[in-house]
Amino acid sequence: MARLADYFVVVAFSPGKRGNGDGQGQILQRFPEKDWEDNPFPQGIELFCQPSGWQLFRERKPPTFFIAVLTDINSERHYCACFTFWEAVERSQLQSRLRKEEEEEEEDEEEEVAAPVQPAQLFAPKSLVLVSRLDHADVFRNCLGLVYTIYVDGLSTSLETVIGNLLTCTIPITGGSQPDTEDEGGARTISLGAGDRQVIQTPINDSLPISNCSVALLFRQLGITNVLCLFCAALTEHKILFLSSSYQRLTDACRALLALMFPLKYSFTYVPILPAQLLEVLSTPTPFIIGVSSDFQSETQELLDVIIADLDGGTVTVPECIHISLLPEPLLHRTREALSMVLDPGLEIADLAFPPSTISASSLKMQDKEIRAVFLRLFAHLLQGYRWCLHIIRIHPEPVIRFHKAAFLGQRGLVEDDFLPKVLEGMAFAGFVTERGPPYREVDVFDELVANEAQRMQADEGSKVRVLQHIKELAEQLYKNENPYPAVTMHKVQRPTEGSHLRLHQRPFPRLDEGTIQWIVDQATAKLQTAPPVVRAERKCLVPSGPPLGTLMERNGLVLANSARRLEVVRNCISYVFESKMLEAKRLLPAVLRAMKSRPARQCLTQELNLHVQQNRAVLDHLQFDFVVRMMNCCLQDCSTADEHGVAAALLPLVTAFCRKLSPGITQFAYSCVQEHLVWTNLQFWEAMFYGDVQNHIRALYLEGTEENYLEQQAGEGEPPEQEEGSILEIAALQCRLWPTMSPEKQRELIQKEESTVFSQAIHYANRMSYLLLPLDTSKNRLPRSSGLGDAESVSNSFITNSIAGSVADSYDTESGFEDAETSDVANYVVRFINRFVDKVCTESGVTNEHLKGLHVMIPDIVQMHIETLDAVHRESKRLPPIQKPKLLRPSLLMGEESVMDGLRVFLIPDGREEGAGGSGGGPPLLPAEGAIFLTTYRIVFKGTPVDPLVGEQVVVRSFPVASLTKEEKITAQAPVDQFIPEGCAQLQLRSCTFQLLRIAFDEEVASESVEVFRKHLQKLRYPQHIADTFAFTVGQASKPALQPKAKEKNPSLRTISKNLVKNAKRTIGRQYITRKKYTPPPWEHRGGGQQPFPEDNEDEISVSEEMDRSTLTPATLTIRPSDKMTMGQLVERACCRDYQRLGLGTLSNSLTRSKNEPFRICTVNRMYAICRSYPGLLIVPQSIQDNTIQRISRCYRQNRFPVVSWRNSRTKAVLLRSGGLHGKGVAGLFKSPNAPAPGPSQADSTSLEQEKYLQAVINSMPHYVDAGGGRNTLSGFTSAHMSSSDSSEKRQPKLGSLMKQVMGGKDEGPGPVSRAALGHRARVITLSSPKSLAVKGRLSPRGKWGSIRASGRTSSYALNMEVGSRLAGKELLGAPPNGSPSEASFLRQHRASLYIIGDKSQLRGVKPDPLQHWEVVPIEVFEARQVKTSFKKLMKACVPGNPSAEPSLAYLRSLEESEWLTQIHKILQIAVLVVELLDTGSSVLVSLEDGWDITTQVVSLVQLLSDPYYRTLEGFRLLVEKEWLSFGHRFSHRGAQTLAGQSGGFTPVFLQFLDCVHQIHLQFPMEFEFSQYYLKFLSYHSVSNRFRTFLLDSDYERLELGLLYEEKGESKGPQPFRSVWEYVDRLNKKIPAFFNYMYAPEDSEVLRPYSNLSNLKVWDYYTQETLSEGPSYDWELVQGRPEPVEDPGPPDAGAPTPSRRRIVWPCYDNRSRVEPDAISRLLEELQNLEMELGQIPGRWKDTWDKLKASQRTEAHEDAGGGKGASSALLMASGGLSHQRRSLGAYLQESGVGSSAINLSLDSDASSASAPSSGKPGGRRSNTSTLYSQFQPAESENRSYEGTLYKKGAFMKPWRPRWFVLDKTKHQLRYYDSRLDTECKGVIDLAEVESITPGTPTMGAPKMVDEKAFFDVKTTKRVYNFCAQDVLLAQQWIDRIQGCLSDA
């Protein structure tokens, strides 16, 4: 029995200090006044009576009722039922009370209180509160209502009697017959003595929560999804806050959420109604469920980690930082479905045509129970089989129970799930195990559901009807529990009369008489004490367990389909091992190791091994031991640390059983070889194992006499041990039942037995743990799993607190996981770890303190003893004969390459590229491979063989030059990579910028010192002190003394002239910097002279405000001194000079005899490198500029790199200039602030003027400008000078405008259209900014050599850039048709500037237009070198990932996009194409970006390559690179980080980026380049390899300083390593056509315009391909070593007539170009072989090729002249064909005989064979109707028969001769205007031909032709009339067409 109410309290309003209407609650009276002993009075009730605060109101309010819940310190809940009504308070009373309380208050304050409100009365709240531990809301409402009714209606009953009766009323806690109940069963009728009667229904089972209608209401308020979200949040311990304006609703909602969580109980803060004064509770860090009035909604806004459910608004707000784990599918879906069936029964029949007339909707109370039934089923699903994972570790005196989480999750297959593991980790589940774990207790609905209904629930799953039926059954049970006696007579309680609370003169609530109430309470208490105690009937029983997990899960199809075969292999292999059939076992082993990925195979292995253990021991020989250990390791490697599937648990007894004899008395057990697995460091694993074993022993204790055989039987089982007869739960239940009947002695004896069982197991586990935690070699002070404890990942791992690291002091050495303290020895760690384990398990399982202390003393001894045993084992194991390791394969070395470190045995581990490991390509797993790593002066080489014995005897080579190493780092083994690789060995990852990666694991035999020495040597070789220590310099030297920094001046190989040059340069440069002073820019008024060209010797006009040492500057007017002649001779030989002379840019002659009519001259001012160190000695400048002027101009530019001419367009004579970016002064300075206050003329800055004049001189040098007389708007001369025909000008115009539009994605930062008019003729500034989105706005019609841009006609960006683009394009409107008349074109072209300066946007910020200049500044955004560096790093990681990813192709594409490498390529190509266009239309361009040596070089080189076919030859490309990259000072050493000084700068591959751009152009125009793609890869590789000196230093000046620039010819005696890459290429190219492009068929003066859209760019295969058979193929001496067999005869195939001669080419292994050379290379090779066989000296391949081309050319000419059928004609590509056709190169053509020959277009001399493309914008055919034509480059490829026929036009049209082509392949007859026409004019489909008949001549037919030469072809659409030249030809045509028809 329990009291209905513990306390009755009256709480009234007490005014606050200020008297402003806010007050506080005050307890007037409480009964009983003494606290009950079993239930003290809860504090703080007054806060909860008015949760929003105690306030006065102006009008009366009706009474309110709600229940607040208070939780005391013992987690007991107290239900406070608050009934509140309002009483009138006179203002005078209020004031007098205030006066009493605060007499010291001043008068004015009192007046203030009185002043604001007029009415005489205010109303104060008063609360009647019942405090109870029972939750009977309706009863409390009735009782307090009765008290209020008696008071308000003045009933005769005494209030004291009613309250006394209320406090003494007792009711049964749960149902069942009670002695003093007045009604039957569990209903109790009470009366408070006021003529009232109430029936209290007590629940049948108090473990089930009571919810009334609260759950159904919650779903109505929030909806299914929101409530499920809150439910999951509560289970996963999130903070939940309910908001509502109703307090009762808040209580109901909180109660409902708790009811849904049954059978779990919420154990955190639970406050359904939180008072305003306690709102700070919401910021508590622990989870909670709290309700708050929505008045305080604003104060909940800043809570960042609280889920807020607004009951009134029906919303649930989840903050961004919170992730709620939802139920696992399919449970979530099923639960939602079931809930919608319950809540919305009409949903199922909503679509029926004849819905039933009535739908049986449940009452709200019933619906409430149905919802709870759904959640009850949900929990039964989630926790199905949980009892099989309980470990009972003690039975007496109290059961101690633990839950094996890992096993439960593993068997449920929910290890990876997000939700269930969190629930199992939570407090609620811990409480669940404690409460429901005991095997002998009362059972309720949930226990029965889990145990008995599991099968039914699984069977019902498919049927909604059956599911609903089950839900209704469960709901009935829940309803019955809450309302056991629905038929009992209902309540009878008086209610107050209507409106009684509004009475004006209501007396206040009376003061109650304490004595009366206390007397009633005392009487009742005394009566209870004398009454006999109530005996509750015990209903305990054995809790049913339900079906074991295994039987339930098997239906879920977890067993793999093909596992039977795998298990067979595992069994066979193990039996072979134990039968000593080692060869058979070895053959099966790889398959077994692969099978270990599947769980059944791992469990099978443990069972099979267990069969071979007798008496806990199995002695093996060395080979057997080795096999067993490898299988165990592989088995463990895929187990997680939690060991969900019990594999590690099953292996634990086995690792201490298998052993081998090392020598007499010394045995090595398997555990010493399987320690490297993280599972052994997981404390939770050991606990679960320990509890499992303890449980088995406790079970054996009570099953007498069956202990031994039981344990043997048990050891091999993977399943939990409870599945046998007499399970531990049954035994425990029996013992619990018997416990009260036992004698105390018997009880003590059992307790002692159990305790000693646990204790002995603890000792056993201390031993086991020391076995698996102490490494074999304890001297190394290295824990077996350094990886598990030292690396960053494991520190953040949630298990770390349970691993050894947790017990270590705070400081770690992160490399090894060691503590820094002196005591850093392994023994200490292991002792601490075991101690922590023992403390935890012994405390939990009730081991006595004495025993525990004994254990702590014992553990260090156990560990020490084990260490001594291990030392002996370790010593002996060293003496074992080593396992036969493969012989080390030595790599072949280059001439001059020397070995630095001999081979260290390593394993090459697979990285993220899956091909080598036999991934997507389907090749064999070549990696991991076993071999050695060699370090030479030039390369790092790995050479070895695959570890997998099934792959075969393949040699695996991976190497890269030491100089290309970008990152070297130690890596930690994530999981053991492969069984063949020993674990715990040092691992390195070496990454190279040649896109190679070496992940190597050193063999155990390699000492760690050797690894460190290797790393040091590597660092030293990678970053030498000086460039002269690199391989290119040291190669071939007898000894390699380290070069002292001072020694570099005295290098004996320098010439005297080099010394003098360098000295002079240093002196000059030094002086120049010292004497520099600050300039002030001249005012604009004084710049008048800037408009004329410079006078030749105008020295006085340009005053130099600086004392310059004139002796060092040779003025241009002086002749060159004879002493400098030698220098000049050397300089003239350089590439620059050769190219200038080829371009006709000036000759080198004395200035006195210099011809004045040449616009440019070769200037020698920099021959001493005095002006600019990074420029070449000879430069091209305008004729009119003097040398001393150049000296001054150069200071305006960064690094003194002033504008010089690089190239001149032979047709338009426009020049391309390059320079560094501007300093603050210079052109940018010219344009800035035109209205600045003018300083005096004496301070005028002459440099800016000179710079203007310099640019003007460049413009004057352009012929069109000179011809026009120098005027501004006379561009007609410009037209006539270089635009040969209006046609060509039309063709060019539209491109440029669109191109500018394309490049200018950003805003036009030049002046807008309004200001343009005001500015008059000022120079214009155009902005080119990199478009953020790479969408190309304007597209161009493909003409000539444009790439894949099609005319799209979109007008999205016209508004932005129309003006700028059209000015640059010379057109008013971009959309104008391309065929404007010549006059219009020349008129529009006036707007084009003569010179465009492409500069960096950031430098030209604030630039304003300049009047009357002939140049325009085009600011563009370019990326910096650091962006290139970052992008390249990401590109390397994308192409050569370090670690395998789950979805390689996706990861690759994602990281490729993130790298933005292709975006940068796109940008460079875009700028280059723009410059090409400008040059091609006659404007000169100055590229002036950054320092002038990175992107400037890229752009300038690409422009020349695109514009000038010469640079697309081998010789020309070499010249281009030598000129623009080497002579003009690209900083190869700096960008390649080639020395120690550059190490911090990192690797920035600007040159590689240029080569990638060339590769993109090569892909689009394969017939325009003489060199092949391989040549570009070769240069890319050797630009970073340091094998040659070509790409080593930063400028000609540095090369001169080291004596490289003019190396003596003819010095070498005997074989010499090549010093220059060019010599090497030349020599190699003479021998073999490695660098030659057979498709080379250039068009003269063809300008290329590649497409630069991202969609047109391809990732260069240089980044992704590799050749594991020989390493990189760029060092020819190395890869030629092994002759490749041409064909491997395969095994003869019985069915085939001839044996198949197949050759397998493996991806990533074979060098495809060598194993399967292309047809031409093969033929040339065969030709050489035949010549050698004949005893002739084989001719050079190039001569053969040239002969072949010549003969082909003559053939083609004859063929073109003869006009015969195409059977013998070779198809020659020519300028007239479309770009698509040109870029294909080789065409298939069907010859007349029917054989198919491959013809290569080798030259363009046969261009007569085709006419120019038609005038249509695209120049391409339009009828691509058939699918076939998509794959044909042009219509002419399939010509079965062709010739001229006359054809009669359609109605009323004349006869015309046409060239007809009969095409059998496409089954059509096509006709063209002439034979040379490529555009087909019409097609007759032969499928439509009905007949061919002789015809008759009609009007207008050709005369002089025989009548019989006419014939008609009738088709389904019309009749075609034809006429041949004679009868014979007509007959041939008819026969051919008939033949075609009959063939079809």
The share of residues in helices is 25-40%
Strand order of the largest sheet: 26-25-24-23-29-28-27
CA distance, first residue to last residue: 104 Å
- Mean pLDDT comes to 74
Number of helices: 62
Classify the oligomer.
single chain
Kindly name the structural category: alpha+beta
Shape: globular
Q: How many runs of DSSP E, i.e. beta strands? A: 45
The amount of beta strand, in percent, is 5-15%
Low-confidence parts lasting 5 or more residues at pLDDT below 50?
104-118, 176-185, 552-561, 705-725, 785-824, 1039-1059, 1067-1125, 1225-1244, 1266-1294, 1305-1390, 1608-1614, 1681-1697, ...
Kindly provide the radius of gyration, computed on alpha-carbon positions and rounded to a whole number of angstroms: 48 Å
SSE diagram, text form:
Elements: E1 2-3, E2 7-15, E3 22-31, H1 45-49, E4 54-55, E5 64-71, E6 77-90, H2 91-101, H3 107-114, E7 121-132, H4 137-152, H5 159-168, E8 170-171, E9 187-190, E10 198-201, H6 214-222, H7 224-235, E11 239-244, H8 247-260, E12 269-271, E13 288-293, E14 306-310, E15 315-317, H9 331-343, H10 364-382, E16 390-394, E17 400-403, H11 405-412, H12 420-425, H13 427-436, E18 440-441, H14 445-452, H15 454-460, H16 464-482, H17 514-530, E19 541-542, H18 549-554, H19 563-578, H20 582-595, H21 599-611, E20 618-620, H22 622-637, H23 647-655, E21 658-663, E22 666-669, H24 683-702, H25 707-715, H26 728-738, H27 744-773, H28 786-790, H29 792-796, H30 804-807, H31 826-844, H32 849-879, E23 899-908, E24 929-936, E25 939-946, E26 956-961, E27 965-971, E28 987-992, E29 996-1002, H33 1008-1022, H34 1031-1034, H35 1056-1074, H36 1125-1133, H37 1135-1143, E30 1160-1163, E31 1179-1182, H38 1187-1193, E32 1204-1208, E33 1215-1219, H39 1227-1231, H40 1246-1260, H41 1263-1267, H42 1276-1282, H43 1286-1303, H44 1313-1319, H45 1358-1369, H46 1382-1388, E34 1395-1400, ...
Parallel strand pairs: 11-13, 11-14, 12-13, 20-21, 33-36, 34-35, 34-36
Antiparallel strand pairs: 1-8, 2-3, 2-7, 3-4, 5-6, 6-7, 9-10, 14-15, 16-17, 18-19, 21-22, 23-24, 23-29, 24-25, 25-26, 27-28, 28-29, 30-31, 32-33, 37-38, 39-40, 39-45, 40-41, 41-42, 43-44, 44-45
